[in-house]
Amino acid sequence: MSFIVDASVAAKWVNIEESSDTAAEVKDAHVRGDLELAAPSHLIYEVGNSIWKNSQLTTDDAREPVASILQLRLFLLPLTISRASRTMEIARMRRTTFYDAA
Length: 102
Hints:
Layout: E1 2-4, H1 7-11, H2 20-32, E2 36-40, H3 43-53, H4 59-71, E3 75-77, H5 81-94, H6 98-101
Parallel strand pairs: 1-2, 2-3
Helix pairs in contact: 3-4
C-alpha cells in the first residue's frame, strides 16, 4: 500500500503539533515496510522551513531532523508536465496554492 504525504504531515514528525501521534504512526509503518510513502519533490524544503521556524530547536538540533527525513527514502515525485497540469487544475478547483496542490 502506498500514500502520498505532504509537508504538513512530514512536519509533524519533527514538530510536536496536533495529530503528531497519527503522523508518527504513518512514518513508523513506512519504516517497518508496511507502507510506501511518496511525496512531492519540494517536501524537504517545506519541512525544512517549518523546522527553521521552530524556536524550540537550536541551529545544531535543527540539522538532524532534515537528515532523518532524507534517510526515510521517501519516493520523491518530480514535477512533470502532466503533474504540473493536474496540479494547476487542483489548485484552481480548490482555490489553494500551486505548491499545496502538488
